[in-house]
Specification:
alpha/beta, Glucanosyltransferase, glycoprotein, transferase, three-stranded antiparallel sheet, lipoprotein, GH
Length: 455
């Protein structure tokens, strides 16, 4: 009897703990994010210092979450995760710290590639596996359909493939009766594509449109101002955007000892009515010197994080000085309309609302059936090899990409040099690209979901 009573008490304590740490889910209404009826603004950090899944070591996540919480972080961005791994411990650790996760659906070798764009069954089933693995966590804020798929001015023909992926993943989410989780896109800051890309991704059929737009921008450097940084122009182009828009990477480190002055503008009167916050690049110190913390012995994710000063305290001070209230959901009216699809021009290669290459209902329902029957590939089948094609962006990770046999991520090249400063930082306000770890390959290869490939 005593044993049963003790077990019951332990169970009730666990249930109470879960109730206390539960977070309201993030939703989109018009151009705003909301959580529990209140507007949600992102104060985030990029959290992926190596190609390996950072959401599998519960103890490490607890240590990092505590340090992040101390500076006011409410979000992290994770670029790649292994759907075969168990993420319960890490997701709970970040939930307890009040931190949401913004997660990419692609892996290193399932991303859409601008030089030879495809949206295949392989890619779709791989994206679905990630969605299945994370959709039940209440602190999963949103999914990224891609990060800088288009990363130079000639890449716009890949945009319809991005919309096709959005359409099929939304259809899959609905068919699985999952909660409505926002799906967005993270863009390189390419002047030649402004504002065509952001407008194209929300024009036309809403079933194919993104729910939020992220911009990777490193334009505000040192003692820049709202006007001299180029942010005034970014605000002008974003005004009236019908879905939430925010900085999915920011934090120029030229010169060193960052001021994070852009945060005051992003959360201030000039931009807060349009922008929903920002994600600082990055949490982990690498060879590119963007990190906010290091780890004992110089090994990434190896214990209690050690603040990189003065940047860590500077960001904490800036964020503490920002108090956002926003608008209550019940008082907000979504009145902004989607823009027309841009016509083809010198800087844009997609002519209007063209048909997008969705896979369609048959493939979507096959994925639903596969998930219901738990027909999934083995770890060896998921560990796909990459082609010999060159990466379309430089890798920022200085760590080895040697992965466990259960990882779906392929071996990626180790970065030997830090990424070059953004063009904006060098005085050319034209293009900035993601500093995120990892590489992109030309063609996704290997078997992901056997059932999907037999369709």
């Amino acid at each position: 009897m005593f044993g049963l009573l003790q077990a019951a008490l332990l169970l009730s304590t666990a249930i109470a703990s879960v109730a206390v740490t539960a977070l309201p889910t993030i939703s989109v209404k018009g151009a705003k994010f909301f959580a529990d009826g209140r507007q949600f603004f992102i104060k985030g950090v990029a959290y992926q210092g190596t190609p390996s899944d950072p959401l599998v070591d519960t103890t490490q996540c607890q240590l990092d979450a505590k340090a992040m919480q101390s500076i006011g972080t409410n979000s992290i961005r994770v670029y790649h995760a292994n759907p075969l791994a168990n993420h319960d411990g890490c997701m709970a650790a970040f939930r307890a710290a009040g931190i949401y996760i913004w997660l990419d659906l692609d892996t290193f070798n399932t991303t859409i590639v601008q030089t030879s764009p495809t949206w295949t069954r392989e890619q779709f089933f791989a994206f679905a596996a990630v969605m299945d693995a994370f959709q039940h966590y209440d602190n999963l804020a949103g999914f990224w359909i891609g990060n800088e798929v288009i990363n130079d001015p000639t890449g716009s023909p890949a945009a319809p493939y991005v919309k096709a992926a959005v359409a099929d993943m939304k259809a899959y989410m609905s068919s699985q009766n999952y909660r409505t989780i926002p799906i967005g896109y993270s863009a390189a800051d390419i002047a030649a594509l402004r504002p065509m890309l952001q407008n194209y991704l929300v024009c036309g059929d809403g079933a194919q449109s993104i729910d939020f737009f992220g911009l990777n921008s490193y334009e505000w450097c040192g003692d820049s101002t709202y006007e001299t940084s180029g942010y005034a122009n970014l605000q002008r182009l974003a005004a009236g955007y019908p879905v939430p828009i925010f900085f999915s990477e920011t934090g120029c480190n030229v010169p060193p000892q960052r001021t994070f002055g852009d945060q005051v503008a992003i959360f201030g009167r000039e931009m807060a009515g349009t922008w929903s916050g920002s994600i600082i690049y990055e949490w982990v110190q690498e060879t590119n010197d963007y990190g906010l913390v290091t780890y004992p012995g110089g090994q990434i994710y190896s214990g209690t994080p050690v603040p990189v000063q003065p940047d860590f305290d500077t960001l904490a001070r800036v964020w503490r000085g920002i108090e956002m209230t926003g608008v209550r959901e019940k008082d907000y009216r979504a009145t902004l309309s989607a823009p027309p699809c841009p016509e083809a021009s010198e800087g844009w290669g997609v002519d209007g609302d063209v048909p997008v290459p969705t896979l369609g209902r048959v493939v979507v329902m096959a994925a639903v059936a596969a998930a219901a029957s738990s027909v999934k590939p083995s770890a060896s089948e998921m560990a796909m090899s990459t082609s010999s094609g060159a990466s379309s962006i430089s890798a920022s990770s200085s760590a080895s990409a040697s992965l466990s046999s259960t990882s779906i991520l392929p071996t990626a090249p180790t970065a030997t040099t830090s990424p070059q400063p953004s063009l904006a930082a060098a005085g050319v306000a034209a293009t900035t690209t993601s500093k995120a770890a990892g590489s992109r390959v030309v063609v996704p290869v290997g078997i992901l979901w056997m059932l999907g490939l037999m369709i």
